[in-house]
Design a protein that fits this description.
Layout (H helix, E strand, L loop, with lengths): L9 H13 L6 E4 L3 H13 L8 H10 L9 E4 L5 H11 L1
Parallel strand pairs: 1-2
Length: 96
Amino acid sequence: MVVDDTLCFRFLRADFARVAAESGRQSVLLVLGTPLEEARSRIAENARHPARGGIVPAVLERHLATFEWPGADEAHRVIPDPAGLDAWLVEEVDRW
C-alpha cells in the first residue's frame, strides 16, 4: 500500500509504522527531494491557475520550520530526484 501524505511529524510516521507492523508488513518512508524553490514555484503557479487545493506561502514556510526529518532509527529512503520514484515502486512491487 502506498500512502501519499506529508507525515511531517515523527508521531504521525510512528502511527503508520505501528499499523503496518500489526498487519505483518514493513513501513518504509520515502523522502522525495523536491527542491524548495520548485515547491514555492508550484504553490505560486497553483495560486494563479488553481488546478487543485493549495496552501498559502506562509503555511509552507511554517511547515518547513517545524518539519521533523526522519531519524536513523526510522526506515526511510531518500529519493533525490522524484523521477526515480517510479523505478523504486517497480522494484518494490516485484518484491511482493
